TrEMBL record, chain A:
One of its GO terms (cellular component) is mitochondrial large ribosomal subunit. One of its GO terms (molecular function) is structural constituent of ribosome. It comes from Phlebiopsis gigantea (strain 11061_1 CR5-6). The lineage of its organism: Eukaryota, Fungi, Dikarya, Basidiomycota, Agaricomycotina. Keywords: Mitochondrion, Ribonucleoprotein, Ribosomal protein, Transit peptide. Belongs to the bacterial ribosomal protein bL32 family. This is Large ribosomal subunit protein bL32m.
UniProtKB/TrEMBL annotation, chain B:
Belongs to the bacterial ribosomal protein bL17 family. InterPro entries: Ribosomal_bL17, Ribosomal_bL17_CS, Ribosomal_bL17_sf. Keywords: Ribonucleoprotein, Ribosomal protein. One of its GO terms (biological process) is translation. The keyword Ribosomal protein applies. It comes from the Eukaryota. This is Ribosomal protein L17. GO terms for molecular function: structural constituent of ribosome. GO terms for cellular component: mitochondrial large ribosomal subunit.
Length: 133, 287
């Protein structure tokens, strides 16, 4: 019996070897490759290497250590709430208010005054209406 | 970039947007004062002023156009009679927008949009209060709060009349801004307006003087009775307490300084005098 000369191990998937483009949906190929029968003469090492080439590199990045409390706090040093600088006294009642805005105390008391008066005289006009829209 | 773009879209298709603005304008004409978000107020003001201009024009095509725009046809006579008469001498600017902080639910900047010279005009009210505050401040700085309380403020009417005639650079009893506001709110109103303003200012002076007296009375009651009775409600006492940053008439502190407290400028503060935030205790403790 003549011994069968085995062919040299050559890549079985030449069509999928794309040296420049890394397909993003390489994950879709994974189950297909796992289910496919083990190629005859295809070593496990080169199979794994070809697999790595298909997966984009950012999928393999992982933090090396837990970010320390100190470093985490330093990163959020600039994320705090900023103080409001535009505070002034209300010219009518003296309480603090935002500049160029209505004083809520004065607005409240003015509204209440009008409502009380319109209630006394039998509701002639409507109140300020909040339009949510 | 938004260079030269006149109108806002409000994340709505054209039909929805126009109907929303028509609703807002109708509500403004109906109630004369509405509260909504600031961008909506700005667009509504623009359209409402155009409707009022149609009202001032007064002819039939204008009436038909205004009638088709407003969503309540019974409001169109109001525009063409009442509002046209009110704004007969005023050249444009029939609406006013007051910014009013941010809404709690979505932090949207809100505003109160009102028709100028309406019965509940906010600027008119605030000007009356500002006049009251400044006259009382001047009196308290001159003679002290106790004497101011005993004598009261006389001659508010005279002050109002004199300040109406003064120019911007001349020196009077009021601040420049307050005088300017006074002249503006009284410009297109009748003779009754200055009487109304005087009355409101005098009422506010009484309120300002009554507050620390009431506080003192409640403090005395608290000392007398340990047990809380029905006559001394907790809510009343809390409501009269001065809030952070609040000042009394006659105090010259700046709101920002007062809010900063101990972290404010050290140079202006004497270490001996430790004032509670905003209160000029030296002047008002003797009351």
């Amino acid at each position: 019996m003549a011994a069968l000369a085995l062919p040299a191990a050559r890549p079985l998937l030449p069509a999928f070897r794309l040296p420049f483009a890394r397909p993003i949906f390489a994950g879709a190929f994974l189950p297909a490759l796992q289910v496919a029968p083990k190629p005859f003469g295809f070593s496990l090492q080169s199979a794994w290497e070809s697999l790595i080439e298909l997966i984009p590199p950012f999928l393999l990045a992982v933090p090396k250590k837990k970010v320390s409390h100190s470093r985490k706090s330093m990163r959020s040093a600039n994320k705090g709430l900023k103080d409001k600088q535009n505070l002034v006294h209300c010219p009518g009642c003296g309480s603090a208010k935002l500049a160029h805005h209505l004083c809520p105390n004065c607005y409240s008391s003015i509204n209440r005054g009008f409502k009380a008066r319109s209630k006394e005289s039998g509701q002639p006009s409507g109140a300020v209406v909040e339009i949510a829209e | 970039m938004k260079h030269g773009v006149a109108f806002r879209k409000f994340s709505r298709p054209t039909a929805h947007r126009m109907l929303m603005l028509r609703n807002l304008v109708t509500s403004l004409i109906k109630h004369e004062q509405i509260k909504t978000t600031l961008p909506k107020a700005r667009d509504t003001a623009r359209l409402a002023e155009k409707i009022i201009t149609m009202g001032k024009k007064g002819d039939l095509p204008a009436y038909q156009r205004a009638n088709s725009f407003l969503l309540e046809p019974k409001l169109t006579p109001k525009v063409f009679k009442e509002l046209a008469q009110r704004y007969a001498d005023r050249v444009g600017g029939y609406t006013r927008i007051h910014k009013f902080g941010n809404r709690p639910g979505d932090n949207a900047p809100t505003a109160v949009l009102e028709l100028v010279d309406n019965p509940r005009d906010l600027k008119f009210e605030m000007t009356a209060r500002a006049v009251a505050w400044e006259l009382l401040s001047k009196k308290v700085q001159q003679v002290g709060p106790k004497t101011a309380l005993d004598s009261g403020i006389q001659g508010v009417e005279g002050v109002v009349q004199r300040e109406q005639a003064l120019g911007p650079k001349e020196r009077g009893l009021l601040r420049e801004k307050t005088r300017w506001s006074l002249q503006k709110v009284l410009r297109f109103r009748g003779k009754d307006a200055s009487v109304e303003l005087r009355r409101k200012a005098e009422d506010h002076i009484d309120t300002l003087l009554a507050k620390p007296l009431a506080l003192k009375e409640i403090a005395e009651q608290k000392l007398k009775a340990d047990v809380q009775s029905e006559d001394t409600p907790l809510a009343g006492r809390k409501a009269l307490r001065l809030k952070a940053g609040e000042v009394l008439p006659g105090s010259g502190e700046s709101a920002l300084r007062a809010a900063q407290g101990a972290l404010g400028a050290e140079g202006s503060r004497k270490w001996v005098h430790r004032p509670k935030l905003g209160i000029d205790t030296a002047a008002w403790s003797s009351l």
